[in-house]
Amino acid sequence: MEHKIIFAGPVGAGKTTAIQTISDIEVVSTESKASDDVSERKETTTVAMDYGTLDVGGEQKIHLYGTPGQERFSFMWDIITIGGLGLVLLLDNKREDPLADLEFFIQAFRPFIKKSSMVIGVTRMDMKARPGLYSYHTKLNELGVKAPVFEVDARERNDITVLLQALLAMLDPGVKR
C-alpha cells in the first residue's frame, strides 16, 4: 500500500530539509537560484516540488511531496495535493509574523485539510522563542482548526518521524488514542 503526504509552508521553513532528512531515497528536488526577496533568506528555493519516499515496513511506502513556499508557485499546491493523505505544515518561527503564515497556509490548503488531516511543525524556535506553541494553538482555535503542534528541527530525523507518526495516527481510525 502506498500513501502520499504533503509538506507545505513558507520559504525557509524546512520542507526540503525535512524530506531529505526522512527520505529513504535521494530526494528529487526542483531547487532553483532565488532571484527575488527570497535571495535575502537563502540561495535556492523550490519552484515545483520536492519528492522522496519512506518505507514503513511490509508493503507500505509513503511518498513525500514538498510544495514550493512562494505564493507565485501556488498553482502547484492544488496539483501536488491530489491524492494526498495528509498535510505536514512547517512554519518558521523566526519569520516576521509566523502566526500570519499559519493563517495564510491554512486558508490556502483549507479544502485539502477538510478532507484529510494536518500536523504542524514549528522550526527555528531555538532562534526565536516567541510566539510559543500556545499562541499557535490559540490561532488554530480562532480559525476553527484542530491540529497538533510540535517544535521541530527539520534536520532531526526523530522530529520529522514524530510529525509523520502523529499525522498517521490521526488518519487511522483504528488507532487507540
Keyphrases for this structure?
33% helix, GTP binding, Gliding_Motility_GTPase, seven-stranded mixed beta sheet, 177 residues, hydrolase activity
Range of strand content: 25-35%
Mean pLDDT: 86
Strand order of the largest sheet: 2-3-4-1-5-6-7
CATH top-level class: Alpha Beta
- Helix-residue proportion: 25-40%
Shape: globular
Annotated CATH topology: Rossmann fold
Topology as a string of helices (H) and strands (E):
EHEEEHEHEHEH
Mind telling me which CATH architecture this is? 3-Layer(aba) Sandwich
Counting H and I runs of at least 4 residues, what is the number of helices?
5
Give a short account of the largest sheet. Answer: 7 strands, mixed
* Termini gap: 23 Å
Assigned CATH superfamily: P-loop containing nucleotide triphosphate hydrolases
How many structural units, i.e. domains? 1
Q: Which class best fits the helix and strand makeup? A: alpha/beta
InterPro entries: Gliding_Motility_GTPase, Gpn, P-loop_NTPase
Family: Belongs to the GPN-loop GTPase family.
Keywords: GTP-binding, Hydrolase, Nucleotide-binding
GO molecular function, one term: hydrolase activity
